[in-house]
Specification:
This protein is 55% helix and 0% strand. The protein is mainly alpha-helical. The protein has one domain.
Length: 66
């Protein structure tokens, strides 16, 4: 079974696995509380999966300049 989005594809957007996990877990909590999803028709039904789909689509990112 292949999980989407793949870790390789996500790491093209955010290089650090630690940052990726932290960002997606924080966003998952926001989604659970506010339900303000930024992607249309997510494949995942779980909040973490939805957050990772936002990363993949470029809607959720880290400003590495700061």
């Amino acid at each position: 079974m292949m999980l989407e989005p793949s870790i390789d594809a996500l790491q093209e957007k955010i290089r650090s696995k630690y940052v990726l996990v932290t960002l997606s877990s924080r966003r998952a909590r926001q989604l659970r509380e506010k339900n303000n999803l930024q992607v249309d028709h997510p494949k995942s039904s779980k909040f973490v999966g939805m957050a990772l789909e936002e990363v993949q689509s470029g809607k959720l990112f880290v400003d590495e300049d700061n």
